[in-house]
Write a structure and sequence with these properties.
Layout: H1 23-38, H2 48-57, H3 61-68, H4 76-86, H5 95-120, H6 123-135, H7 137-143, H8 149-168, H9 172-188, H10 196-205, H11 212-239, H12 252-263, H13 266-286, E1 291-293, E2 299-301, H14 305-321, H15 337-349, H16 353-373, H17 384-394, E3 400-404, H18 416-419, E4 423-424, H19 429-433, E5 442-447, H20 457-469, E6 470-478, E7 481-488
Parallel strand pairs: 3-4, 3-5
Antiparallel strand pairs: 1-2, 5-7, 6-7
C-alpha cells in the first residue's frame, strides 16, 4: 500500500468497485461470521447496560424519545431500532432482540471488510481481513450484546465503502450517499465519527479522476452537511456528557490488553505482531510504487496510511484523549476493528500460503478459550440472572435493599418482579439505622466487576450505615455481584 508495501502475494490488483466477483467471498464470510456469532447467543446473562437497553425498548417510541431528552440521547436511534425489532414479535421485549441486531451488524462488517480489502489491496487481503474480523473473540463478545457498538462498526465499514466509491467515481449521488452514512454513524454512536480522521487520510492520499483540491472540497461539503443534520443530537449529547458513569484513566497496560483482546489472546497478538514486523521490514526493502492501475483503467491509492490510522491510530488517539476525559473502553473503540483486520489481512496476504495458514491456525487456537468463556452464563462479566435467583431465594417481605455502587440498582429492571416488596434505601442511608424497624433486614447488593473508580461518598455512607446497625447473617456470590443479608443486632 505505501511506498513500503510489497506486492500482494497473488500479484492481483485491487478490485474495481463494480467487480461482481467480490460479492461471493464477501457473502460467504458474512454468513460464516453470523454462524460463529450465533453459537451460544442467548446463554450469557445480560449485564447492566443490556438491561438499560431492554428497559428503554419496553417503552413506546414516544416514551423512548421522552427518556432520551434527559438521559442516553446518544443511544436514542438504537433504542428505537430495538423497539422496532421487538414489535415484530408480539411478546415482551427480550435481550435477544438487541443481540440479533448486533449479530447482523458484525456479520455485515465482516462482509464489508472483505470488500474493503479487495478494493484497496487485493482479493487475498480482503479474504484474510474478513476472516480475522469474523474470528476475533472480541467481535464475538460484542456481536452477542444488546448495545449499539456492533451496529456502529457495520455503519463505519459501509461509510468507508461509500467514501471509496465517491473518491474513485465522483458524483453528487455518491457524495450524498456518503453524507447519509455519516449521519447514520453519528446517530448510532457519536464517538465513531472520529473515523473521519481516517477518511480524511483517504481523501488526501487517494488519486482519482478529480483533483485533490476538488475532492477535498466535496468531502468537506459532505461532512459539513452530515454534521449540520446531526447538530441537534450532538448538542443534547454534549449536554448529557456528565451522565456517563465514571471511567478510570486508562494505562498503557489497558491499551496493550485491548490489542491482545482484539487479536484473540496475548499469543495471538504476538504472532500477528511478529508477522507484521516481518512484513514492514520486507516492505521497506522493496519500496514499491504507491499506485497501481485497476482493471477499469483508473488509478487508486494503495497507501496504508488511512488503514493504519483507522486500526491503530484511532484507538491510540482515544487512549490519549482519555488521559484527560476517560472514554477508552473496548466497546467505544470497537468501530476501529475493521481497520486492524485490514492490517492483519495485508500481513497474511503477503506471507507464503503455508506460513499464513499456520499463523491463522495459531491465532484461532489461541483464542478458543476466550471464545468459550464469553459464551458462559457470566460471559459478559455479570450474571444478573443468577443474581435475581439469589435475591428471590433470600428476600422476605419488607426487606430493604442497598445497591453499591448506586448505579447497580439498574439490575432490578431486568425482572422487577424479583424485587417487588423491597425498599431501595441506597440514596437514603440515614433511614437504614433510624427510620427502619429494628427487626427489618437489609440486602446489601455490591457489584464486584466493572468498578472503574472508588466508591462515592453516598456509597460509603450507605455501607457504614448498614454495618453499624446490623450484622451479616447470609452471603451469596455470583459472577459480578455479592449479596449480603444484614439483620438487626
Amino acid at each position: 500500500m505505501t511506498a513500503a508495501s510489497p506486492t500482494p502475494a497473488t500479484g492481483a490488483a485491487p478490485a474495481a468497485l463494480g467487480d461482481r466477483s467480490a460479492a461471493g467471498p464477501a457473502a460467504l464470510v458474512g454468513l460464516l461470521a453470523a454462524a460463529v456469532y450465533a453459537v451460544g447467543l442467548s446463554r450469557p446473562s445480560p449485564w447492566r447496560d443490556e438491561v438499560a437497553t431492554i428497559d428503554a425498548a419496553r417503552r413506546p417510541a414516544a416514551g423512548i424519545l421522552a427518556l432520551t431528552e434527559h438521559v442516553d440521547a446518544v443511544h436514542a436511534a438504537y433504542y428505537l431500532l430495538v423497539r422496532g425489532v421487538a414489535d415484530l414479535d408480539p411478546g415482551p421485549v427480550r435481550v435477544l432482540d438487541g443481540r440479533w441486531i448486533s449479530l447482523v451488524g458484525f456479520a455485515v462488517a465482516a462482509a464489508g471488510t472483505v470488500l474493503l480489502g479487495r478494493r484497496t489491496d487485493g482479493a487475498r487481503t480482503g479474504l484474510f481481513a474478513g476472516l480475522f474480523l469474523a474470528g476475533s473473540p472480541l467481535t464475538s463478545r460484542y456481536a452477542g450484546e444488546a448495545r449499539p457498538f456492533a451496529l456502529a462498526t457495520a455503519v463505519a465499514v459501509v461509510s468507508t465503502l461509500a467514501l471509496l466509491a465517491a473518491v474513485r467515481r465522483p458524483g453528487r449521488g455518491r457524495w450524498a450517499l456518503y453524507a447519509v452514512t455519516l449521519v447514520a454513524l453519528g446517530a448510532v454512536e457519536v464517538l465513531a465519527l472520529s473515523l473521519l480522521v481516517a477518511h480524511a487520510c483517504w481523501v488526501l492520499v487517494a488519486p482519482g479522476p478529480a483533483g485533490a483540491r476538488s475532492r477535498t472540497w466535496r468531502w468537506l461539503a459532505a461532512v459539513g452537511a452530515a454534521v449540520a443534520l446531526l447538530s441537534p443530537l450532538l448538542a443534547v449529547v454534549l449536554g448529557q456528557r456528565g451522565q456517563i458513569g465514571a471511567l478510570g484513566t486508562p494505562t498503557p497496560r489497558d491499551l496493550a490488553a485491548y490489542a491482545a483482546r482484539a487479536a484473540g489472546s496475548v499469543a495471538g497478538s504476538v504472532v500477528l505482531a511478529a508477522a507484521g514486523a516481518a512484513f514492514l521490514v520486507l516492505g521497506w526493502r522493496q519500496r514499491r510504487a504507491t499506485q497501481r492501475t485497476i482493471r477499469s483503467g483508473r488509478t487508486v491509492s494503495t497507501g496504508w496510511l488511512p488503514v493504519v490510522v483507522w486500526g491503530v491510530g484511532l484507538p491510540v488517539l482515544i487512549w490519549v484523549v482519555s488521559q484527560v476525559d476517560p472514554l477508552f473502553r473496548d466497546r467505544y473503540v470497537l468501530f476501529t476493528l475493521p481497520g486492524l483486520a485490514l492490517l492483519a489481512g495485508g500481513v497474511l496476504a503477503r506471507l507464503p500460503v503455508p506460513v499464513a495458514a499456520v499463523t491463522v491456525a495459531a491465532v484461532v487456537v489461541a483464542g478458543l478459550p476466550t471464545q468459550v468463556a464469553i459464551r458462559q452464563a457470566g460471559g459478559h462479566g455479570e450474571d444478573i440472572r443468577a443474581l435475581d435467583a439469589a435475591v428471590a431465594a433470600l428476600r422476605r417481605p419488607g426487606d430493604a435493599v442497598v445497591f453499591v455502587p448506586r448505579s447497580t440498582a439498574r439490575v432490578a429492571q431486568l425482572d422487577p418482579r424479583v424485587w417487588a416488596g423491597t425498599t431501595n434505601l441506597t440514596d437514603n442511608p440515614a433511614l437504614i439505622g433510624s427510620a427502619a424497624r429494628p427487626t427489618s433486614r437489609v440486602l446489601l447488593v455490591q457489584r464486584v466487576s466493572g468498578a472503574d473508580s472508588g466508591p462515592s461518598a453516598t456509597d460509603s455512607a450507605a455501607v457504614r450505615a448498614v454495618e453499624r446497625s446490623r450484622r451479616p447473617t447470609d452471603r451469596v456470590a455470583v459472577t459480578g455481584f455479592v449479596v449480603t443479608v444484614y439483620t438487626a443486632r
